[in-house]
Amino acid sequence: MHIVTGSDDNYVPGVMVLIASTLWHNPGAHFTILDMGISRENRARIDLLGERLGAIIHRIEVAEDRFNNLFIRRAHLKRSAYLRLLIPELLPDSDRVIYMDCDMVVTGRLEALDQVPLEAYPIAAVACPSPDPRELAATETKLGEYVNSGLLVMNLPLWRNENIAEACERALSDPSCPRLCEDQSAINIVCRGRVKLLDPCYNIYANEPTYMSPESLPKKITVLHYVVNVKPWMWNVSFGEIWDFHADRISDLLPPRRRKNFFQLATRIESHRRMVFGLAMGRKKHWQRLKVRRAIRENIVLPYLQAQKERPTE
């Protein structure tokens, strides 16, 4: 099983926990990191992680100006988000890889992804649970067919034969082409109608507002995805204890936590203020959100942590 991820220096904690959690549940997986500006110190940390876990971790350096001609619309993203488009070129001897964003944590077995038949499909991916209607319209994609690009099983011979990466870059560099979600938009446009849909358990959003009630929470989780700005190495977030469990196992190797800037702190404080005010005013949506938060911890997080503690020692 070959898993590829990409990162700049800011997301190294995510890369390391992605690797540690994947190996916890999938011994023998090997990894390639597309490196767009990871510091020497953090490269050394990743090397030490590979030695400790007995893992094969390759690293391919990518010039930091590689995507200077492309724009980023969402504030929480960097140009390293485009790295997945380079996989067919940078891994010429690979036929299939599982690309995973580095803000994911693995909670189960992934062998089904390594075996899913791709045939004439360029990718297999999970449909977004609640895509922006503007994005559906802009990409001319139907609800249930628009996919999140955070986890992709990639049919690399097809990508090379059809120059799919180049087509995505053309879409991204064309100012007349809609791209509300950057490379995700481009992938949905270029691969439209030829996406193998995966079980939602392989890309579950760890974003509390995604869930309207405790009953809407997922019943099965194999991969958690800390989408947008809910990064567990920055904040205490819903589902964050699962990430922390795997981070604690390698805590001596992880880089020091970065101090939050004023804007990040102000945003967090405002979010808490709105929650407290809404609860005090008896607003239903805020009380419902509190119920969802409790259900996440009691019904998903704590059972997972207990199961890991009871796991037989190898």
Would you report the number of β strands? 10
Task: Specify the biggest β-sheet.
Answer: 7 strands, mixed
Radius of gyration: 19 Å
Q: What value does the average pLDDT take?
A: 86
Quickly give the CATH architecture: Alpha-Beta Complex
CATH class: Alpha Beta
Q: Number of folding domains?
A: 1
Give the topology string: H per helix, E per strand. Answer: EHEHEHEEHEHEHHHEEEHHH
Shape: globular
Q: What is the first-to-last residue Cα distance?
A: 21 Å
**Residue fraction in strands:** 5-15%
Structural class: alpha/beta
Helix content: 25-40%
CATH fold descriptor: Spore Coat Polysaccharide Biosynthesis Protein SpsA, Chain A
The multimeric state of the shown protein is single chain
Uncertain segments are none
Strand order in the sheet with the most strands: 3-2-1-4-7-6-8
Structural topology:
Blueprint: E1 2-7, H1 12-25, E2 30-35, H2 40-53, E3 57-61, H3 87-90, E4 96-100, E5 104-106, H4 111-115, E6 123-125, H5 133-139, E7 151-155, H6 156-161, H7 164-173, H8 182-190, E8 195-197, E9 204-205, E10 223-225, H9 240-249, H10 262-280, H11 284-309
Parallel strand pairs: 1-2, 1-4, 2-3, 6-8, 9-10
Antiparallel strand pairs: 4-7, 5-10, 6-7
Helix pairs in contact: 1-2, 1-9, 7-8, 10-11
GO molecular function: glycosyltransferase activity; metal ion binding
Protein name: Lipopolysaccharide biosynthesis protein, LPS:glycosyltransferase
Pfam families: Glyco_transf_8 (PF01501)
